[in-house]
Predict the structure.
Amino acid sequence: MIFDNDAIIKANRLTRSCGTTNPYRIAQELGIQIFYMDLSSIKGMYAYVLRNRYIVLNNNLGEVEQRIVLAHELGHDQLHRGSCFRAFTDRSSILYETHRREIDANYFSAQLLIPDEDFFEMLENEYDYFQMSAEMQVFPELMMLKVDMLNRQGHNLKPFDVGSKDFLKNRLNMCN
């Protein structure tokens, strides 16, 4: 999997400057307009048009999934603003999307939604990665990316693999 420190650096900088990890408050601070529409199978999209920034979220998503998709789209704003238009199609794209920009946005959202301090506090309290995912209200795939990022920064954490693309197909959605 491709990894670039820009996602970590920019997510951390944004968290510090806005004083929050809440993607709704961050979008508001940045002047990004959020719209809700029925997007069919598309979960969300980002657009930068005439110096105006827009994020459109699928109004059929649950609250937790909208938050995750919003964080992902903020990643596009911070990392790929010039690319103008990006769509987040489905949850499986967290792990299996091959486009570099999508991977970057996934790492950005993992860093934004899973602060290091919270991660290590839960680890110290002996939470497993699935418990951490449920507590942080993120998909296990994002927790896997967080573990990967931390290991690339020199930590020696037990690898986390959610398995095949079908891994969550038969599970109850722990986030909604």
